[in-house]
Amino acid sequence: SFDQVGDLIVYTIKVTNSGNVTLTNVIASDPLTNTNQNLGNLVPGQSVTLTEQYQTTQTNIDEGKIVNTVSVTGTEPMGSTVNTTAGNTLFADQNPGLELIKTASPNTFDQVGDVITYQLVVRNIGNVTLSKASVTDPLTGFNVNLDTIAVGATKTVSEVFTVSQQDIDRGFVLNIANSQALDPNSQKVAA
C-alpha cells in the first residue's frame, strides 16, 4: 500500500516463454511506468525479469489505488503475434482529515455594540483532496462554501459578531463554528 505523494513503488515483471517454440521480438510494455522494452528472443522455458519504478501522485491517493497492466507481445516462427497481459492493483491508505482554527479579535468586550471579528482557518490535514468544504457558525448564521481543499492547503474566511446586552450580562460569548467536507469516496469529514 501507499499513502504519500512520491512513495516509490517497485514492480518486478517476469516474462517467460511458456510455449514450445522460440519467440522473437518480445516486447514488454507498461504505460504506467512508460516502459517499452524489447527483450529480444526467448527460447521455450526462458525467462527475463524486469524491474520498474513508479512514484505515486496525489491523483493515485485520491483514486485510492493504482492499477498497473503490463502487456507482452512476441512473434512465433510462422509470423503470428503472441500476446499476454498481467495486472496488479495496489491500494492507497487514505487518511482524510480536516482542522478548523478560530480566533477572535478583539478577544475582550465591554459594551453593547462592540464588534468581534472571527477568523476561521480550515486546513486539510489528511492525505486526500477534500471537496464541497464548508464552514458554518450557528451564532452568527455564517455559512460559506469553500469548494475544494488540496492536501496541506488552507482556506481562510472572516465573520463579525456584534455584542449584545445579554452577552455583557453573561460575561462571555460562546461561539462554536463547524467545518465539513467530502473525501474522494464521498464520505463526510468534519472538524
Protein described:
This protein is mainly beta. 6% of the residues lie in helices and 56% in strands. A four-stranded antiparallel β-sheet has the order 3-2-5-6. The chain has a four-stranded antiparallel β-sheet with strand order 10-9-12-13, with no helix packed on it. A hairpin with a 5-residue loop joins β5 and β6 (81-91).
Helix content: under 10%
Distance between the termini: 27 Å
Q: What letter string, H or E per element, gives the SSE order?
A: EEEEHEEEEEEEHEE
> Radius of gyration, rounded?
29 Å
What spatial form do the alpha-carbon principal axes imply? Answer: rod-shaped
How many strands? 13
H/I helix tally: 2
Topology (elements, then pairings):
Elements: E1 8-16, E2 23-30, E3 35-42, E4 47-55, H1 58-63, E5 65-75, E6 81-91, E7 98-105, E8 115-124, E9 130-137, E10 142-149, E11 154-162, H2 165-170, E12 178-182, E13 188-190
Antiparallel strand pairs: 1-4, 2-3, 2-5, 5-6, 7-8, 8-11, 9-10, 9-12, 12-13
Index terms:
mainly beta; 2 helices; rod-shaped; 13 strands; four-stranded antiparallel sheet; 191 residues
A few lines on this structure:
This protein has helices at 58-63, 165-170, and strands at 8-16, 23-30, 35-42, 47-55, 65-75, 81-91, 98-105, 115-124, 130-137, 142-149, 154-162, 178-182, 188-190.
